Amino acid sequence: MSGKGYSVTEMTVKCPSVIVLGAGAVGLSFAAVLSAHSDVSVVCREKHAEAIKKEGLRFSGIWGEGLIQGIKCYTSPNISQGEKFDYAVITAKGTDTENICSEYSEVLRNTPAVSFQNGIGNEDIIARYSPTVIGGTVSTNFGFVADGHVIINSQSDPVKAGIYPDKKSINKNKRDIFNSFFSLADRCGIDIKESDDIRSEIWSKSLLNIAVNPLAAILKAPIKKLGDDDLKEVIAGMIEETFLVAEEEGIVLPWDEHGSYTNYLRNYQLNAFGNVYPSMYYDIISGKKTEIDLLNGYIARTGMKYGIETPYNTCITDLIHCFEKSRRILF
Q1: CATH code where residue 250 lies
Q2: Is residue 282 domain-shared with residue 225, that is, in the same domain?
Q3: Which of 103, 163, 240, 254 could cross-link 258 (Cys pair, CB 3.0–4.6 Å)?
């Protein structure tokens, strides 16, 4: 990744303009790399905005190292009057998707939106506000070194993106929009692949989050440690229930049955992430609301709709809700 940002005057053609909504560690990391070939604005917390305005946006880790100057920072919906964007990249927590779409509805009204979020159902919310939705999956661990300084710790798969919900919804205009964004991401050095069925990709990626995020949060354990034999039955149960619900939802997963995915998880994914912790762990220890209702909770609710019993996902959802309450009381 290049650490240099380019202004419009340095380019022979007009740079596309990108605004990143809900820019925490994920969003600021994407802002840093996209700034190589686009004019980037971010909506972020005030402490990060102040650091970026003063010293620039720093990034380090497996995507490279750099210091980016000139990124516009916003901390409220008061975007500069008349400012237009070619893309709105949404990286907010799934628990905030509805609120941020509502707050920035004027921005999204005529702007294609790209969702790089955890959980199932974010894109359906965004589609109520934006005329074109590009869904995406990111199997990468991001974090903060300091205010305005992000670090990319590990990545197990390329970024995957596609028009939501799938290729059947693509017309020429949406195809051109997607191709332009895909080309931008590729030029900026992002390892990205197109998906004809991004809804399937979102569910496939959520399998990992469903299996490991709540356990890592409850056990205060890094992802690699979840390969313990005592957890095999619990993880297998959550995954089997998710496969049953996915089938009823018409989702075609890339594994023929739940056991194949469970083996892939244990033999590859857990080791690929190693000693990092998922965001749900940090949410719990800091007393924040987690994305459990967009993961295991989503499976439990949807299973109920189809009459599918989901004891493992229901139990883990209830446990996380209890942890959320207890941490809020303490903090």
Answers
A1: 1.10.1040.10
A2: yes
A3: 240
- The percentage of residues in the chain with a pLDDT greater than 90, rounded to a whole number, is 81
112 touches 86 (CB < 8 A): yes
- pTM of structure: 0.87
The predicted-structure confidence for 219-241, as pLDDT tens digits, reads as follows 999 999 999 999 999 999 999 99
Cα–Cα nearest to 3, from 41, 39, 32, 37: 32
Q: Choose among 55, 33, 276, 36: nearest CA to 146.
A: 55
Phi, psi at 318, each rounded to 5°: -65, -40
Task: Give tens-digit pLDDT for 25-38.
Answer: 999 999 999 999 99
C-alpha 160/C-alpha 195 separation (Å) is: 6
Q: Which domain holds residue 21?
A: 8-196
**pLDDT over 60 (residue 1):** no
Q: What are phi and psi of 204, to 5 degrees?
A: -65, -45
Q: Which CATH number covers residue 37?
A: 3.40.50.720
The Cβ of residue 255 has, within 10 Å, a number of other Cβ atoms equal to 16
Read off the pLDDT band of 327 (50, 70, 90): low
- Measured CA to CA, the distance from residue 152 to residue 139 in angstroms comes to 11
DSSP string, 268-290: IIHHHHTT---HHHHHHHTT---
DSSP assigned state of 15: P
Question: Tens digits of per-residue pLDDT, 132-191?
Answer: 999 999 988 898 999 999 999 888 789 999 999 887 878 899 999 999 999 999 999 999
Please check whether residue 154 is in contact with residue 171, taking contact to mean a CB–CB distance below 8 angstroms: no
